[in-house]
Design goal:
Maltoporin, Chain A, 39 strands, 8 helices, 6-stranded mixed beta sheet, mainly beta
């Protein structure tokens, strides 16, 4: 857990490889002064003093009133993940579903919510597909990541559409001027990765450039009677920079691009070319009026997500989203205890370049190809020594669908120096995708947005040397978008999601022990109309979500080597079958290992073993998962 006491323990033990920390917020942007101050601090000082927050402004970690997790660069270095899913899957109440292995379609379910009901950001840029609603996390190499922040629970009042389950924000790598690295890795299934990065200093600013290329022959991903290897390759680049103009004004920027292709099993298509890019330019201005400190941020950016599908090199369709984005926010600090944040967000989705190949072989387009979304919010936060309060209200106007009003309310009570309790209540919504609305022979233009209402209570304390956190949450989702009996997109009745999480974190002589246990019950609610049709009707579980999950992570240092061990248990789930009843996917257990060992001052050996016991399991019906795999790499770095 990321409490003040845990950080003090880490400092006393000089244990720089922090575990997955709790209580850090994910937001849109961080003031430039805070970025500069944080960059000049050590890793521990960043965590202790300053964070990018769920208020969309800089805030001390201990003042956050939301349930959060942060994965640091130090965590990534010792875990040596092959994909972002390797990191997210260890978090409480997170389910990962893969249609095969790395490079295949992947879904992230946060607290039982759908994969398109969690907002994904890269340095503040929305990167989800407007056609599918989901995000291709497989395109983003862990080498490009500085940290990942996960805010659990609805944050639509701050972020707008899609933040029902929460917000996952990925921040790209930052290196100091003159720092650089280069490395190569090899592994199972003819895996190859090449990576490099450099930090460039320019006056009162710096720019980081990172590149990564990886490829693999893959393995047979689907149980379809056809034995073949389904490989992939991706090439990614990210440029992240900032420049201080004067004492009050600074500018930062981002450019990222990922190109690749992957093979998969399918009767209609079996390979695709994918591309995604994002760019952002952001201005940060600090001012003071009548003893009120203000920080104003204006940003303009764009995201493009493209997937072109083929079957034996014959064109089968193109799905492309272009999203232009603008944002203006202002943080006013009236006192040490009280601040107000206000902002306006605008983005425009354009899918006019998409081309859909119909069943008759003709090329079709979406009936409506563009959509504007405009939102405005106000957020107030009071942090006293004993009581803390926050309130947020937002209005969003979505062209072609409807308008939405959302809110968040939170209250915290500091019981003593070691303990506090927080209560949150919030609403959220998810806009129908272009596929939901306009896909030929499937879409329904009259769909309503999904709407949610969630209450969460969490308690955090220190029991002896153990930092402890307990969460309880309850969500109701109306107008859930799914497929009806005629295979058309439809709104359905209420879904109930309730869950609990237990997190324990201990720094002992042997290393760090971090475990979490979560229970998630996500079901369709049976209505009176359902009972009239079938007196034996019962609540149905939402597919691919496990009720029980347990994760244990242990990190230690032996001489100069950092060692990581992970045990994971995922309970049974249900999955859908076309034209038949759901099937049960069995529970499974995994053990993964990681190593980060300096061979010299600048040379580091990295290694990872996944699925050590070579277990056979499925996260999606009919799709295989990878057996035991070994990855080994060498990295040269001067930091």
């Amino acid at each position: 857990m990321n409490t003040k006491h845990m950080n003090q323990m880490n400092l006393k033990n000089n244990f720089k490889k922090s575990a997955l920390l709790l209580a850090m917020s994910g937001v849109f942007s961080m003031p430039a002064m805070a970025i500069e101050e944080a960059n000049n601090a050590s890793a521990e000082e960043k965590i202790e003093r300053m964070t990018i927050t769920a208020t969309r402004s800089a805030l001390s970690i201990d003042d956050a009133l939301t349930s959060q997790v942060v994965i640091t660069r130090a965590d990534i270095d010792v875990i040596n993940p092959i994909s972002i899913q390797d990191l997210l899957s260890t978090l409480p109440s997170v389910d990962i579903s893969n249609n095969g292995g790395r490079g295949q379609t992947s879904s992230v379910f946060l607290r039982g919510n759908g994969s398109d009901a969690t907002l994904i950001l890269v340095d503040g840029v929305r990167v989800s597909s407007a056609t599918l609603g989901s995000t291709r996390l497989n395109n983003i190499s862990p080498e490009m990541i500085e940290r990942i922040e996960v805010v659990q629970g609805p944050r639509a009042a701050l972020w707008g559409a899609d933040a029902i389950g929460g917000v996952i924000q990925i921040f790209t790598r930052q290196l100091e001027g003159g720092e650089h690295f280069a490395g190569v890795s090899i592994g199972t299934d003819e895996y190859r990765k090449y990576k490099a990065g450099i930090g460039l200093k320019h006056g009162d600013g710096q720019t980081t450039v990172t590149v990564s290329h990886e490829r693999s022959e893959g393995f047979d991903v689907q149980d379809d009677g056809e034995l073949d290897e389904d490989g992939y390759k991706f090439t990614s680049i990210a440029i992240r920079g900032q420049q201080k103009i004067n004492e009050d004004l600074s500018v930062d920027w981002l450019f990222s691009n990922s190109d690749g292709e992957n093979e998969f099993d399918g009767s209609f298509q079996n390979n695709s070319d994918i591309n995604s890019h994002a760019w952002l330019v952001r201005a940060n201005y600090a001012s003071e009026f009548s003893d009120v400190k203000n920080h104003t941020v204006f940003s303009v950016g764009q995201n493009r997500d493209s997937s072109e599908s083929f079957s034996d090199f014959e064109f089968k369709g193109l799905f492309e989203t272009r999203r232009d984005q603008f944002s203006l926010t202002n943080n006013s600090q009236f006192s040490d205890e009280f601040q107000v944040n206000m902002g306006v967000d605008y983005y425009k989705d354009d899918v006019s370049n998409s081309r859909i190949l119909g069943f008759t072989g003709d090329i079709q387009n979406y009936e409506d190809e563009k959509r504007d979304v405009t939102g405005a919010f106000v957020h107030a936060l009071y942090n006293g020594e004993v009581f803390s309060f926050e309130a947020t209200a937002r209005h969003d106007d979505v062209s072609g669908v409807d308008s939405e009003n959302t809110y968040n309310l939170g209250a915290g009570y500091q019981i003593n120096d070691d303990s506090r309790i927080v209560l949150n209540h919030g609403t959220g919504f998810k806009v129908p995708t272009f596929n939901d609305l306009y896909y030929p022979d499937f879409g329904t233009p009259t769909l309503n947005s999904e709407r949610s209402e969630t209450t969460e209570l969490f308690f955090e304390t220190r029991l002896g040397a153990v930092d402890t956190r307990i969460n309880f949450y309850y969500s109701e989702i109306d107008e859930l978008i799914s497929t009806d009996a005629n295979f058309n997109a439809s709104n359905f009745d209420e879904v109930i999601i309730k869950g609990a999480e237990l997190n324990l974190y201990l720094v002992a002589t042997g290393g760090t022990h971090d475990l979490n246990l979560s229970y998630t019950d996500a079901k369709d609610k049976v209505t009176a109309e359902d009972l009239l049709k079938d007196v034996n009707a019962t609540d149905e579980k939402l597919t691919r979500r496990a009720r029980e999950k347990f994760n244990y992570k242990f990190t230690t240092s032996i001489n100069v080597a950092d060692l990581y061990a992970e045990y994971k248990f995922v309970g049974s789930r249900e999955d859908s079958v076309f034209g038949a009843d759901n099937v049960k996917l069995g529970a499974y257990q995994l053990i993964n290992l990681g190593l980060n060992a300096p061979l010299s001052k600048n040379l580091v050996l990295n290694a990872r073993v996944t699925n050590l016991l070579d277990k056979e399991y499925q996260t999606a019906n009919t799709y295989f998962t990878q057996g035991r795999a070994l990855y080994v790499g060498i990295t040269y770095q001067n930091f």
